[in-house]
Amino acid sequence: MKKYINEAVKKVSRNISFSTPGHKGIFSLPSQVEFDVTETIGTDNLLHPQDVILKSMENLKRIYGSKKSYYLTGGSTISNHIALKSITKEGDRVLIERNAHRSILNGCILNKLKTEFMYPSYDKKTKLFLPLSPQIIESYLKKYKDIKLVILTSPTYYGMVLNIREIAEVVHKYGAYLFVDEAHGSHLNFLDKNLSALSGGADIIVQSPHKTLPCLTGSSFIHVGSSKVNIERLEKVISMISSTSPSYLMLLSMERALEYMEEEGRENLKNVLNLIKELKNDLKDKYFFYESDFHDPTKLLFAKENVSGSQILRELFKKNIRLEMADINYALALVGPVDSEKTLVPLKKAMREINLKEENFKDLYRQVLPEKIMEMYETFERESQFINYTEAAGRISADTICPYPPGSPIIVPGELIDQDVIDTIGTYLKAEIEVTGINKNLIEVIK
Question: Per the database record, which ranges form the Orn/Lys/Arg decarboxylases family 1 pyridoxal-P attachment site domain (predicted)?
């Protein structure tokens, strides 16, 4: 049998990685088959921890400074569903940032939650979505009086970090819970300037340590940040939704990553940030590097005038440098606690050497504000059909339509498809940007 996946992974693994997972393929992890065990005498039970797993999670709690913390091995998609179910009940209204991860949207559907969306501002100068301010969030809370839960993403895929401390004060003033999807922020706690959601006062936080710490893909943390969260309900939901066959390899890798961060990683991050500063200074004549007080400094977000981020990504790949992602405007390199001169010097050299050609393109961003006809969860029970998206004006979407990147939905289930939506979809497709929810020009709509 030809091993297609094996051949592809072997080829890619030769690259120097500036993408997930955070171990970058260079950090030693317990991945041998001999460590792939299950619940037995001496290994404890993740869904009912009494011994070694409980003790290890106490370390997790201590390191992050939470009220309580949990290991999960089903990825943060499952953890997001757990967080939603632990705080809300069917029919509750939640307030969500429009660029939320699809697992958040799907969790709202599964839990039959009423949803209202907040739209971040788009900065035409930098061509980036700006972080939601506490004032904007408060304006939505004033408009919708019955919000049970506010759901935010920080950092975003592009590294934008929200002012969680001030936002938490606003959210709690209106009697709501604050849930932060911090999938890309497990490392923030280890920076000198701690921008983490836990330190800011969020009630419940989900992290994907495999994205920015040296552990295996699919690893996840849930942190409880306040006494408002019902621990008994949370643990009941964890037991209901999580697999009864957790990966001990993931558990071992999370524990190993925490050990490294305490003993070496925190200090190495300081060295890495200095190397990033040197790289930016040496290449400032060739690239624009995005920086702000509320931007994750380990997210190397850069651009070149009249050159697409996609071209930069492709050319660096030819030099055996693998970036996390690129869009029309930017390229993104994820730098982490296991990086060093051995990885950052080759990146700098390749960025200097690649031959980039000017392109004729324009910013694709279009703000679309579709009308909500029904709740997302209501569409899940309705019959649907697939039609050409160009003929869908006046129909109700049965799926999330999202250009990737940047990952902010054009339309979600239950919203009305109008000509503006159709034109926006067409703009992205013509630019050869992947649009999830569109397959061979077909879109799913309610019958």
Answer: 33-284
Rounded Cα distance between 105 and 377, Å, is 10
pTM, rounded to two decimals? 0.95
- With vertex at residue 278, the alpha carbon angle to CA 273 and CA 283, rounded to the nearest 5 degrees, is 125
**C-alpha count within 13 angstroms, C-beta hemisphere, residue 28:** 2
**Mean pLDDT in residue range 319-339:** 96
Q: Tens digit of pLDDT for each residue in 118-167?
A: 999 889 899 999 999 999 999 999 999 999 999 999 999 999 999 999 99
In the chain, what are the domains? 4-260 (3.40.640.10), 267-353 (3.90.1150.150), 376-446 (3.90.105.10)
C-beta separation of 290 from 332 below 8 A: no
Question: Can you read off the two tokens belonging to residue 362?
Answer: 């324009």
Token digits of residue 19: 């993408």
CA 240 to chain centre: 24
Q: HSE on the CB side for 20, CA within 13 Å?
A: 17
Structure tokens at 10: 């072997």
Longest CA pairwise span in the chain (Å) = 64
Query: In terms of DSSP bridges, do strands 16-18 and 321-323 run parallel, antiparallel, or are they unpaired?
Result: parallel
Angle at 188 between CA 29 and CA 405, to 5 degrees: 85
- The SS3 assignment for 28 reads coil
Q: Strands, E, within 114-213: which ranges?
A: 114-118, 122-123, 128-129, 147-153, 177-181, 204-207
Place of tokens 């624009």: 288
Q: How many helices (H) and strands (E) does the chain have?
A: 15, 19
Contact 437, 401 (CB under 8 A): yes
Q: What is the DSSP letter of 265?
A: I
Euclidean distance between CA atoms 159 and 188, whole angstroms: 11
Q: What is the pLDDT of residues 27-69, one digit of tens each?
A: 988 767 889 999 999 999 999 999 999 999 999 999 999 999 9
Nearest Cα to Cα of residue 400 among 156, 104, 89: 104
Amino acid code (one letter) for 178: L
pLDDT digits (tens, 9 = 90+) for 263-303: 999 999 999 999 999 999 999 999 999 999 999 999 999 99
Task: Give yes or no for a contact between 259 and 99, defined as CB atoms under 8 angstroms apart.
Answer: no
Residue among 324, 327, 343 at smallest CA distance from 272: 343
Q: Poorest-confidence range of 5-9, 351-355, 370-374?
A: 5-9
